[in-house]
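quick one
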Amino acid sequence: MDMLKICCIGAGYVGGPTMAKISQKCPDIRVTVVDMNAAKIEQWMTDDLPVYEPGLLECVKEARGRNLFFSTEVEQGIREADIIFISVNTPTKTYGVGAGKAADLKYVERCARMIAEVSESDKIVVEKSTLPVRTAQSIKRILDSSSPDGVRFQVLSNPEFLAEGTAMTDLEHPDRVLIGGETSAEGDKAVGRLASVYRRWVPADRIITTNIWSSELSKLTANAFLAQRISSINAISALCEATGANVDEVAHAIGRDSRIGPKFLKSSIGFGGSCFQKDILNLVYLCEHFGLPEVAHYWEQVVQMNDYQRRRFVTRILDTLFNTVSDKKIAIWGFAFKKDTNDTRESSAIYICKSLLEEQAHLSIYDPRVGAEQIYRELGVDADCAQVTIAKNPCEAARDAHAIAILTEWDEFKMESLDYASLLDSMQKPAFIFDGRNIVDRKALRQMGFEAYSVGTGD
Ligand code: UDX
Ligand code: ADP
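structure w/ uridine-5'-diphosphate-xylopyranose:
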């Protein structure tokens, strides 16, 4: 039998790591990752990958050139493949109907049209990007209406549940793999074929098969539930600050209830990342579209609470720094939306930095994985902006600063990783620390002489 060929369109945070894992686990499958972004493809062929993920480089190196390939030849990749994954980005629409809420499907549609145009043999087309419910149906309609006679397509929904920063372990040991397919004999066959790829390393009882719409909706719902937990604990953090309770203690106590569980109860400056906000807004848009305004309002509140949490953090800095940060230097530690990634999409740090800049603060920003250019771009400022400097390490950022704001929970900011006593010496006095991730020991820092604040503690 011929070697099974997989093509993945989109070499980003989802497509790259997922295909690296599949090719590592299935040496008998030829995996080609294609992207129209030539610079990105070029970078995937070096040891300086465009995506930072612990363990990713090792995995790529094992398979690259053996059965894992990167290419800009999108059409050729499609033509040769038996299974095509669509892993392109689906940002929130910024224009027209549904602007600010609905998913922009132009990249997905472009892929579907190209697949229809260039395919010469039957294909299984897999939606991997997070898409609104019923998108698979639209993809199928495009494929069926514009493909040559005799070429048949099966569309599957196979959402990715990996979290950035832990992508490689999530892919290695997924809680579940979800595959949605058409309810027909051909649909079942296609589902079985994709399942057999995952079966090489994922136990059978972790592979769930559903109809397409359940699969699509499960992805949105999983992200909505996870984000809802964070907004719930963040809502309680505001009450903790007002009452003297401690949100980490509350989270610990409620998390011991097996019905609640301990995960996703970490109060912070609000969730970021490319998925949570986008998927909830998508859900809200769908509910509105289907005439369910109460359901739409319910979920919209999760995003509003997240905005509130970001605003509250900025307000706390302002209130504490005697109501003004104008011309004060603030060290910003961490810009990525969480640790162990170089991704800054929807990072709360962007909102917080922009607000501080509006208040005329001077920011000295340090992140171990995010480059200067990316920070400038996200903040919408030029490299010569006098208000923003990029530091090479946390100490440089904090030198002569009035305050430090910890915005990402990188391990190198923890108490055991840094000499906080000498940091204190190098700062303006009183020296403030605002821990937006609750990773440092507030009491120990106070004893040293810092004025330290964390999220969800009133004292
Ligand atoms: C999320 C989902 O977890 C994943 O299953 C899906 O495939 C994509 O979206 P991701 O956005 O990569 O993954 O990271 P995640 O770990 O979920 O964190 C999202 C945001 O929530 C981060 O900003 C993180 O700092 C924040 N967060 C997470 C909290 O504030 N508190 C928590 O307890 C957990
Ligand atoms: P995600 O987090 O969903 O993986 P990314 O933005 O990291 O999103 O990656 C999506 C990738 O898809 C980008 O590198 C982009 O260039 C690529 N892409 C988008 N549309 C197409 C297309 N029609 N053909 C090839 N690549 C595409």
